[in-house]
Design goal:
This protein is mainly alpha-helical. Helices cover about 70% and strands about 0% of the residues. It is built from 5 helices and no strands. It is globular.
């Protein structure tokens, strides 16, 4: 699997950026797992359990792939990306609450908010070195400048 040299360089030069991106990926996986867990617990009978247990995370994956992934099929502006992230990742925290773990849900919500804020800030700031003009593309290719889209 080929790797993007710019991303690899960015991870090497910015270890906090890399650590936050890894945390973001883990948070996404946890959100999918909790959405599935919640889905398997609602309804009566095995049919609703399976439909919701598989369907809810599938809808989350489709939303993520279309709007929030670094190489999303449709890359809207930051406000819509943040709405999709709030729905999917916040939905994961709400699902954790729904299966009876309110403290874990609050912890997950705090991690989601902090991780998303740091990730979006770091992605848009890019590495800053003398002579590079500041800024630069983040992992998702966004420069943060108007008209780049």
């Amino acid at each position: 699997m080929p790797t993007d040299p710019g991303t690899t360089r960015q991870f090497a030069e910015r270890p906090w950026f890399a650590a936050n991106e890894i945390l973001a990926f883990l948070v996404e996986l946890v959100a999918l797992a909790t959405l599935s867990w919640w889905g398997f617990t609602i309804g009566h009978g095995w049919i609703p359990h399976v439909l919701f247990g598989l369907g809810v995370p599938l809808v989350a994956v489709v939303l993520w792939a279309l709007f929030a992934a670094p190489k999303a099929r449709l890359r809207p502006g930051l406000p819509l990306v943040l709405v999709v992230k709030a729905v999917v990742l916040g939905g994961g925290a709400a699902a954790l609450y729904g299966v009876g773990h309110p403290v874990a849900a609050v912890v997950m919500a705090v991690v989601v908010v902090a991780n998303t804020a740091v990730a979006e800030t770091l992605r848009r700031s890019g590495p800053t070195r003398p002579g590079d003009g500041g800024g630069g593309g983040g992992a998702d290719g966004a420069t943060g400048s108007p008209g780049s889209g």
